[in-house]
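Methods — Computational structure assignment.
A single polypeptide chain was analysed. Its primary sequence is given first, followed by the predicted tertiary structure written as structure tokens.
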Amino acid sequence: MRKEPATIRIARWSATHPWSAIGLWGAFVLLCLFLGGAAGTNNISDEESGVRESGRAGRIVASGHFGSKPEESVLITPKSGDELDERAATSAAADVARRMKALDGVASVGKPVANPRGTAMLVPVTMRGDPETADKRIQPLLDQSAAAEEAHPGLRIEQVGTGSTAKGLTETLGEDFKRAEYISLPMTLLILLCVFGTLIAAGVPVALALSAVGAGIGLSSLTSHLMPATSSASSVILLMGMAVGVDYSLFYLKREREERQKGANHRDAIEIAARTSGHTVVVSGVTVIVSMAGLYLAQEATFASLATGSIIVVAVAVLASLTVLPALLAKLGRWLDRPKVPFLWRLTLRSGESKLWPALLRPALVRPALTLLVSVGALVLLALPALDMKLKQPGSDDLSRDIPVVRAMDRLAEEFPSKGTVHQVAVRAPAREAGQVRKALDGLVQRTAESRLFAHDQKPAVRESADRRVHTVDVGTPFTPKSEGARSSLEALRAWLPHAVGQVPDAEYGVGGKVAQGVDFTGHLEERLPWVVGFVLLLTFGMMAVIFRSVAIALSAIVLNLLSAAAAFGVLVAVFQHTWAENLLDFRSSGAVVAWLPLFLFVVLFGLSMDYHVFVVSRIREAAEAGMPTKDAVRDGITRSAGVVTSAAVVMVGVFSIFGTLSMVEFKQLGVGLAVAILIDAVVIRVFVLPALMAVLGSWNWWPAAIRRRRAKGVPSGREGGGAVRRPDPVTMQLTVAEPAQYAQVAQGTYGAQEPGRYEPYAYQDPYAQQQTQQPQSQQYEPYAYQQPQQPYVNEQPYPQHAQLPYQQTQYQQAQYRQPQQYEPNPSPQHPGQRPYHRTTRPDQQE
């Protein structure tokens, strides 16, 4: 006997031991949170995050153990914009220095420095303690700066530095994220209320998704001690966890409810959902995990951290759907449909097939080639702007100017360019060569003083490590980080540095800083992109080919997901590389897309799109295995899955769109890119491109394997091109194509009851058999077969006596399904209110 799938065995155990399953899951989540909180998070350091020359420069500086302390700059400028009163500015600077020296958190205060134009004055302040926690200790300094400004009304006194900048950005961006969280959860719950019509059913997916996010964050903190985590890892875990957690629970819940509406009890409905949707959840989860694993090939610490966090939370979401969700469904029972939202509840119970989806699918199924050509052409047009995609790392240029500290940073960079965009030159050599290294760097500094590419308000100072092995110097430039001038100054430094220190024996050197990191990071991603994309495509193709036993399905999945991703990239470029949407989305265009976004978006979108693809194609394959021709199977599979896919897509689009309202441009681009891609995938791909492509391919969809049709023993069957099922004509005994296909299923026995309370999916709902189900048990017949109401079958032309008919009709015997339009009403005096049907023509006489 064939062993049952693990998803069914797990669901059965959970359903029969619900409190044990729920308790184990709760203990698991709490344990993850406790261990993660106790271990803490090991964040990526500067020497671990860099790549290429800037990464080498960062590692050289870190090896010098300079013991950097948080530094603050107090900027004094006139409020009116006129020339700075030198006497008033000097008095204010002395007042600031006096106030700062009185604070315990201040290590030292430098001498006031005026810029060459005499329009501003700067007071350098060095704090005590770790720079990583400076934002939590900066408030006393900010209070003293504000008090000094009140004491000198004509002057603007602002503070910019390690702690003040981090605090200002954290407060603003933190409020953004809080607002996003407050909006996303109610929005998700409201959408699920529209899907299920009951509060408990809507709350179950949200609760499971949140528990998966909590466990994922705890496990991510633990794994960070093996693979350091980036600061944005928790945001990505929240994003991915809510997306897949809600989706997987939604798939499972909708299938369980569908089976209950067909007549199955709770236990049987759970097992059917485990066999179908549970299997789909496993496949989808593995597909997303494989896609995210491609980020490891980027060979960059930030991407490795994001991949680890995403893989963990997706695996936890799959585990939750397979284990605790069946237990919740079994324990809740009828309470799952409580409390009901009156209007929404009635909408979710509407009987009959939806008219919307068949109408939307009609062009793809009636004229598949034309629909495929038009829809693919539209996606290609959307993707065309992606050919002009420019990549740049985000910087201060991308921050909203509504943030006070950002405006202060702009004024500081304008008045003191050496404090704005800075290149960091680092050299490591044997201690005995320290003098020669210093001499070489002094020559380099002198050369920068003669170039207009560099700032001249302050002379760069060379720093030397305690062991005299490492020397660094910061060289400022008067250009913004993303400007061509900043890039040109970087290229000049990298060209001059080898000539300056090339003669020093055993010297290592490099130029780092924000500009260098952005240039190197972009170049590194462009180099690694083919490896990541190739890995994702190859493994996804292999998985889809194995799962569906079809090379055609695997190839079509790859092509369709590439189309949707390319179209999303085109929209992303059209929106963010130009200025027409600036007022709409409240951002300033930098003329480029954030460097890390395309690679990350590709991997995430490929995983999430495959999630939907697997679900939809699985339903189509179920219908095809039940005996439907390809077009009918496509129509049935997409129509039955449309509600689930649309609901999941609406949830994702809503959540991702909220990210488009955040202040940071990278999150805006991430939110818009994900929302557009999911929308394209759910609407254009699933409604037009996929059904049209499968209709064109016909039986080739399942190549090289063939669909295994399910049929009753002893019933002859065959196939026509396109997967149509043939059956013997009851008069001529010749094989003819069944029309329509779903009626042939009754003849083959595929829609009959397999065991009490459980039916095969896609059961044909016979409108004429529904009346019989209300009769006493002794008068009911086999389900889903045409029932002749207590009247022998009457035919004007009886069958030949010598024919051995497998479908011969008797009074209480399951019969071949007759199409309603082949009968005429014939009132029966013996049975008032019931109208048996009298056949007027034989099947071979039909037009």
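Note: The longest helix spans residues 162-196.
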